[in-house]
Amino acid sequence: MYCIHCMNNISTVGTDALEAAGYAFVEDPAAANAWLVRSANLNEMEMPHDLLAIARAGAGVNNIPVERCAQQGVVVFNTPGANANAVKELVICGMLLACRDIIGGVEWVHEASDDPQIAKRAEKAKKRFAGFELAGKRVGVIGLGAIGAEVADALIALGAEVMGYDPYLSINAAWGLDRRIEHATDLDQLLSACDFVTLHVPATDSTRGMISAEAISKMKHGAVLLNFARDALVDEQALAEALDDGKLARYVTDFANPASANMKNAIVLPHLGASTGEAEDNCAVMAANQLRDYLENGNIVNSVNYGRVDLGPLVSGTRLALFHENVQGVIGEVSQAIARGGLNIENMSNVSRGANAYTLLEVTGNVTDALVSELEGLTGIRRVRHIVR
Ligand SMILES: NC(=O)c1ccc[n+]([C@@H]2O[C@H](COP(=O)([O-])OP(=O)(O)OC[C@H]3O[C@@H](n4cnc5c(N)ncnc54)[C@H](O)[C@@H]3O)[C@@H](O)[C@H]2O)c1
Ligand SMILES: O=C(O)CC[C@@H](O)C(=O)O
Question: Which positions, given as ranges, span the membrane (predicted)?
Fold first, then answer.
């Protein structure tokens, strides 16, 4: 029986499914074989010895020490696309909130709510809250993954002109994009051409601070910046100055922090992008299914630190799952040790991702503790799992 610890509230459709499959939920993270997490920050946490996997019910994994986990043979999963529609809808809402002073108008009504003359006064007051339309504006979408692509499509349907920038887009993903999306070949081209710029990239070492003072200086005067990706992408000091002096008209962000919460002309939300019942259910179900497939079958689908391996369900027999360095000779040593142990390899898959490699073997014969120890002792091996049905 596998034990799971939830680091955050995870939708019960995911946790119930795990319970129905015989999984136990434990309070103590150190007693768990897998963690389910949303936004809890695990970066400073020790990974307990028995921890095999972490499933992020969501997209961003900057709250998880992904590479350290890889070194310890802990697979980190996320749930790509499972909350993309929810985020897309909030991004469009954020753009519309920036087009007119809808929030100011709502506040005005609230303040005047006791006035019997409110209807008459509203007709006079409303010019203060007027704005402009999204249709016909040019919107730059940085990052055309699950969310960026959906945002771009929705904007086209609303009559905006869309320019996209994503130098890492796969050919398949590019084929799926609307042909009306203009392709920016560099970031500066997009920044200087767009009335709105919306960020949909992960927070990584290479994207942190990508909206720097210099990037802001290249944006159109009076442009609107939207950030539903991560606050670390933006130099908030430079942004506050740009909002103060009118270089940027508005900043709409999903990341409330002491800097953003006090910015002039900022609309700041408390990380609501994925907070819909539908998205929470989708993420929880995907995370639970991926965990089960890994724990019970050794298959890895949608991991951010190990490559995809899928031998299908383990119907009978035994699998050996090996996490190792992606270096020459490891597979040879492993197969020799298995042959010496009198076992036969029936099926096998080996995939590497950067320096991290994973080999899943279906074997016949008796897997002894001595064999597992021998495999664990081979150079380059990080973890060995013996999976039985
Ligand atoms: N506000 C929320 O609640 C919420 C919800 C989901 C995701 N997010 C954030 O949004 C991010 C994107 O989510 P997603 O589901 O679209 O992820 P995704 O992996 O599907 O897409 C990310 C895209 O960014 C591109 N990219 C990476 N580096 C880039 C760069 N330097 N310049 C341009 N493009 C670059 C990638 O090629 C990829 O296509 C997540 O990493 C997360 O931080 C926030
Ligand atoms: O779990 C959440 O509410 C936020 C998730 C979001 O930031 C993500 O990266 O998927």
Answer: none
